[in-house]
Amino acid sequence: DAGITQSPRHKVTETGTPVTLRCHQTENHRYMYWYRQDPGHGLRLIHYSYGVKDTDKGEVSDGYSVSRSKTEDFLLTLESATSSQTSVYFCAISESSGQGAPVYEQYFGPGTRLTVT
Amino acid sequence: SQKIEQNSEALNIQEGKTATLTCNYTNYSPAYLQWYRQDPGRGPVFLLLIRENEKEKRKERLKVTFDTTLKQSLFHITASQPADSATYLCALDLTGGGNKLTFGTGTQLKVEL
């Protein structure tokens, strides 16, 4: 978890309320990712970023938006939380060896446990 | 359809034995495959990466094989210890873009004394 923090670590919120999760890195890595992890589904990619203000959708992006205004911060927003978004959310970072080169290993944060009641 | 398959049943083995976990994938030929370890309540931790032109890779007690014909990777832990008990995830890039990973659901390993 070194170099990656997530906040909050735990949150309980009500259906219909907006929620923002924050991922902060000190590694200056170009790529940042948001995943959710649920029993039986494993880790699923929500959104990812390949640079400041450059983001793209993942496998399960509906109901989520992201922003990255600085290299070190990647925000995940649930505009109107639903019970189906109850999950553990992980942020990850990665780097590549150069422009257009593939990224390799990802480093994960400690996770945020979100409960939507 | 499931593109990455890991045995969802937990694997229980005795201390000192070799644990072997399987990762099968379909519909794609990835350039590399990765293995991660995840402990309860924590994020996954990267263990090993193996490229398509590498048949085998080792790191201490860990060994990974990659058979692109069978579309399968095997992950071995030799001389297993109770501290090796965790969930092990395989991951690969299914898009070819080189910047996204798809993870398997993981296999839980329990090493008993």
Give a brief outline of the structure:
The complex is a heterodimer of chains A (117) and B (113). Chain A is an all-beta fold.
Keywords:
heterodimer; A: 117 residues; mainly beta; 7-stranded mixed sheet; 11 strands; globular; B: 113 residues; 6-stranded mixed sheet; 5-stranded antiparallel sheet; 0% helix
| Unreliable spans of chain B | none
Mean pLDDT of chain B: 91
Number of helices of chain A: 0
Q: How would you sum up the major sheet of chain A?
A: 7 strands, mixed
N-to-C order of helices and strands of chain B: EEEEEEEEEEE
Helix content of chain B: under 10%
Q: How big a fraction of the residues of chain A is strand?
A: over 45%
**What is the rounded distance between the termini of chain A?**
29 Å
Structural class of chain A: mainly beta
Oligomeric composition of the shown chains: heterodimer
Task: Specify the structural class of chain B.
Answer: mainly beta
What does the radius of gyration of chain A come to? 14 Å
Query: What is the number of helical segments of chain B per DSSP (H or I, 4+ residues)?
Result: 0
Largest sheet of chain B: 6 strands, mixed
Helix content of chain A: under 10%
Large-scale geometry of chain B: globular
Strand content of chain B: over 45%
- What is the number of beta strands of chain A? 11
The most extensive interface, with participating residues per chain, is: A-B, 30 and 22 residues
Structure overview:
Helix content of chain A is 0%, strand content 56%. With 117 residues, chain A is mainly β. In chain A, strands 2, 4, 5, 6, 9, 10 and 11 form a 7-stranded mixed β-sheet that branches. A 4-stranded antiparallel β-sheet of chain A has the order 1-3-8-7, with no helix packed on it. The N and C termini of chain A lie far apart (29 Å). Chain B is globular and about 45 Å long. Chain B has strands spanning 4-6, 11-14, 19-25, 32-38, 45-51, 56-59, 62-67, 72-77, 86-92, 102-103, 107-112. Chain B is mainly β and 113 residues long. In chain B, 0% of the residues lie in helices and 52% in strands.
